[in-house]
């Protein structure tokens, strides 16, 4: 016990000596400035006031260090005095690099934001390879009000002293801003690391590591840091974190309970990594998550009930993940999900009950997949999506099925989707539409059927689309426009049927389109006589009509 006491006392003295040296430097610098004969009394008062404030902050920080050391330090996990000193002095206030981080090359760029006003220090060195310094500064807004910059070296044991000296010297002649550089934990709200090459998060014995111990962080951006491994204790005790950005790294696996302490996290971005598996236990603790980004990973598949505990999530995105199917009940528990984006995958069919119990879903983006058929029946074969899967999505307003391989639909494919306002079926292989297909879409405002193989529209196909404002049917194989094509579209404002094969137009085709404002019939082979005979009940903007002058003279 005596040996342990002596050891503890030794490091207590290190802490006290460390801050005493900093305070002594501030005193010396202050006295040097006060000795300047050109400084007036008002400036001297300001300098002394700044000195008092800085010393008070350092004393508070020293006391916090001592308290943390006495209550939490476990000397047994550290191997030498140097590591212990760094652990004591920096763990609770700064990032840890136990030694100079060799992985941070001389031509790497380091940008740090430590507070809500994005006070920044930029480590500048020769040969910046990512972008010129001025481009980065202009893009990210890192000039302060005096157009000055602060440079620091990669985070090591000298960083804190350097920042104190630079910031203190700068503050001596300036009025005290509302947000001075603070070192106490409660003043750190945001940290943004940009292109800092890190090997892992959470392993205090690794040279290629950062250890986050600032408990009041609300925003933490670790994107584009080359992170491959996240220790399951990396985010321990970050109870106030609201946004966490881990996108554009090389993370291959998440351990169970990695995020268990992030009870109020709202945003989690894991896009552009190397994740192949996502299990429900990997997402434990995210009880208040509202936005989850998983795009551009390498998932083999997503298991059922993966998102079971994420009942507060409103927005879910996993585009470009090479997914071939969605398992039944995969979204079970996500009762508040309103926006779902699964575009740019290889999904050829959706199994029954995939969307069961998602009552608040308003927007689905299913574009750029491999769907072939939408049927009103239960799924019996592959390459078929049953619209029954959407039956629980009574609030669905936006459905994008564009850029798939759809050929046909069953009669009740969109049954009871009365709240739908936007439907895109563009860029498929649709050849025919049943005249009852859209009967339940009574609130639809935009319908996109362009880039398909349609040759004819059956009579009364749009009869119940009384609120439709925009209808796009360009780049199809229509050869004629009949007078009953657009019955029921009294609110239609924009109609595009360009780049088809239309050589015949019934004169009364557009007669009952009382709200029509723009009509595009460009790049069709019809003759002048059809233009002369077209009947409109009101003025229609001919600018987007795209007719040649000799056709309408």
UniProtKB/TrEMBL annotation:
InterPro entries: Dev_Immune_Receptor, Leu-rich_rpt, Leu-rich_rpt_4, Leu-rich_rpt_typical-subtyp, LRR_dom_sf. The keyword Signal applies. Keywords: Leucine-rich repeat, Repeat, Signal. PANTHER family: SLIT RELATED LEUCINE-RICH REPEAT NEURONAL PROTEIN, TIR DOMAIN-CONTAINING PROTEIN. This is Uncharacterized protein. It comes from Brachionus calyciflorus.
């Amino acid at each position: 016990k005596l040996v342990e006491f002596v050891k503890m006392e030794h490091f207590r003295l290190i802490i006290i000596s460390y801050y005493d040296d900093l305070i002594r430097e501030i005193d010396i610098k202050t006295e040097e400035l006060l000795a300047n004969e050109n400084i007036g009394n008002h400036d001297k008062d300001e300098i002394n006031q700044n000195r008092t404030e800085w010393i008070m902050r350092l004393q508070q920080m020293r006391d916090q260090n001592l308290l943390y050391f006495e209550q939490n330090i476990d000397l047994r996990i550290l191997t030498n005095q140097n590591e212990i000193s760094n652990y004591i002095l920096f763990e609770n206030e700064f990032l840890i690099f136990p030694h100079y981080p060799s992985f941070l090359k001389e031509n790497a760029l380091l940008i740090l934001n430590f507070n809500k006003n994005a006070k920044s220090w930029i480590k500048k060195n020769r040969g910046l390879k990512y972008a010129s310094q001025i481009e980065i500064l202009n893009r990210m807004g890192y000039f302060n009000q005096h157009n000055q910059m602060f440079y620091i070296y990669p985070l090591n044991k000298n960083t804190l002293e350097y920042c104190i000296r630079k910031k203190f010297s700068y503050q001596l002649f300036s009025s005290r801003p509302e947000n001075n550089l603070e070192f106490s934990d409660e003043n750190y709200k945001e940290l943004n690391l940009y292109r800092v090459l890190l090997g892992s998060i959470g392993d205090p014995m690794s040279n290629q590591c950062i250890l986050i111990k600032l408990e009041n962080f609300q925003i933490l951006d670790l994107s584009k840091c080359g992170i491959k491994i996240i220790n399951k204790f990396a985010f321990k005790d970050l109870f106030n974190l609201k946004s966490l950005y881990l996108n554009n790294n090389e993370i291959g696996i998440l351990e169970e309970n990695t995020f268990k302490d992030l009870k109020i996290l709202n945003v989690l971005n894991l896009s552009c990594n190397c994740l192949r598996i996502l299990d429900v236990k990997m997402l434990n603790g995210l009880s208040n998550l509202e936005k989850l980004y998983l795009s551009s990973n390498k998932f083999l598949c997503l298991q059922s009930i993966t998102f079971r505990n994420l009942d507060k999530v409103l927005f879910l995105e996993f585009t470009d993940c090479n997914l071939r199917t969605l398992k039944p009940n995969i979204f079970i528990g996500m009762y508040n999900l309103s926006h779902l984006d699964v575009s740019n995958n290889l999904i050829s069919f959706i199994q029954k009950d995939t969307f069961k119990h998602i009552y608040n879903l308003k927007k689905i983006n299913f574009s750029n997949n491999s769907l072939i058929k939408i049927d009103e029946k239960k799924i019996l074969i592959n390459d078929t999506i049953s619209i029954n899967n959407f039956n629980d999505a009574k609030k669905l307003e936006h459905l994008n099925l564009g850029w798939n391989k759809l050929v046909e639909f069953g009669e009740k494919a969109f049954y009871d989707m009365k709240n739908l306002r936007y439907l895109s079926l563009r860029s498929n292989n649709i050849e025919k539409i049943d005249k009852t297909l859209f009967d339940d879409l009574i609130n639809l405002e935009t319908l996109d059927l362009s880039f398909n193989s349609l040759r004819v529209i059956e009579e009364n196909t749009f009869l119940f689309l009384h609120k439709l404002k925009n209808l796009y049917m360009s780049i199809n194989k229509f050869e004629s426009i009949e007078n009953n094509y657009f019955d029921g579209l009294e609110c239609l404002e924009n109609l595009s049927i360009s780049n088809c094969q239309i050589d015949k137009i019934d004169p009364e085709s557009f007669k009952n389109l009382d709200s029509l404002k723009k009509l595009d019939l460009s790049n069709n082979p019809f003759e002048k006589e059809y233009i002369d005979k077209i009947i409109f009940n009101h003025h229609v903007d001919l600018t987007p009509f795209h007719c040649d002058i000799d056709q309408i003279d």
